Amino acid sequence: MASPDDRRYSQTHEWYKPEGELVTVGISQFAVDELTDITFLEILTTEGEIAKGETFGEIESVKTTSELYSALDGEVVEANQQAIENPALLNEDPYDKGWLIKLRPSDPAQLDALMTAEQYDQQQS
Questions:
Q1: pLDDT tens over the chain, length 125 residues
Q2: Beta carbons within 10 angstroms of residue 34's beta carbon
Q3: Which of 79, 43, 39, 76 has its CA nearest to residue 58?
Q4: Is the whole model's pTM more than 0.85, yes or no?
Q5: C-alpha–C-alpha distance, residues 57 and 75, integer Å
Q6: How many angstroms from the chain centroid is the CA of residue 78?
């Protein structure tokens, strides 16, 4: 399955979808497939400033625990409470209902440094 081309992707498998002045962040289908059954989601930064490279949470599955990293500097304005309460949403729909946070980037040009869907998919194959 090809990754949606309306967003950018990081090396750590998070996706970044620009929506007006905000960017919605989630994890890729590849990451979900690698983790297998996701059982727990913790968002450490539900509101406030975050720097590129900082962790904003962690995700646990029956297989492993992984950190979630921000590839952008900005302000977290919302966390997906539905996904926190029901992490299975990430297994079911990582590109829509399973989003993680919304942030207001301090430098939207940082998105340009992330991979396109085509580049990301090529890296995973």
A1: 799 999 999 999 999 999 999 999 999 999 999 999 999 999 998 889 999 999 999 999 998 999 999 999 999 999 999 999 999 999 999 999 999 999 999 999 999 999 999 999 999 98
A2: 15
A3: 43
A4: yes
A5: 15
A6: 13
